[in-house]
Amino acid sequence: MESSDPELMARLATGDDLALNTLMDRWGQRVSAFLFRMTGNRETSLDLAQETFVKLYQARDRYRSNGTFSTYLFAIASNLARNHARWKARHPTLSIDGPQGETGCCAEEAVDPGRSPEEVASASEKSAAVDKAFQKLPDDLREAMSLFIYEGMGYSDIAALSGCSPKAIETRIYRARQILKEQLKDFL
């Protein structure tokens, strides 16, 4: 029988460091994917995901299971992403590895042998346009959309994580959808 996330945190707090491995296995990919959507950079997202679990470990004694674990975990990740964005704004750099703005990709796209090269190219173009438009969203809108769509969190969980009201989250998601709809109108 698998332990729940709060049970694993309780074990971690009592000195069972292997409980962290289970949490990392369970949540690592989702946290990395969320951070990739927030930063737009694969290497940065992986670094921040590791740092998220370091912070989780450091906070093991302070964790209270009165809320959902995912909200707690993604709050840590979100704070790290915001801190990174602030740091990056104060310390601009140019990459010597590739063109500016190149972000890489978290997952390889599956090849469908039943699709023509034109269909594959069109789908790839649409996906790149959606990714680019998503990255252009303001941080607060991108965060709310990522948590709502990809993590399946409700307005109240996102609000608790963001420190605002559920109505504010509803408004952010609405605004993000409107912006994306406008930016992607040529693909709709």
Count of DSSP H/I helices: 8
Q: Unreliable segments (pLDDT under 50, ≥5 consecutive)?
A: 99-109
Helix proportion range: 55-70%
How many domain modules? 2
Distance between the termini: 46 Å
What is the element string, with H for helices and E for strands? HHHHHHHH
Q: Tell me the name of the CATH homologous superfamily of the largest domain.
A: RNA polymerase sigma factor, region 2, helix turn helix motif
Strand content: under 5%
On the 0-100 scale, what is the average pLDDT? 86
The CATH architecture name of the largest domain reads: Orthogonal Bundle
Helix-strand makeup class = mainly alpha
Global Rg: 18 Å
User: In this structure, how is the largest beta sheet organized?
Assistant: none
Rough shape? Answer: globular
How many strand units? 0
According to CATH, what is the class of the largest domain? Mainly Alpha
Could you name the CATH topology of the largest domain?
Answer: Rna Polymerase Sigma Factor, Chain: A
Please tag this protein with its features.
globular; Rna Polymerase Sigma Factor, Chain: A; single chain; mainly alpha; 68% helix; 0% strand; 188 residues; 2 domains; Arc Repressor Mutant, subunit A
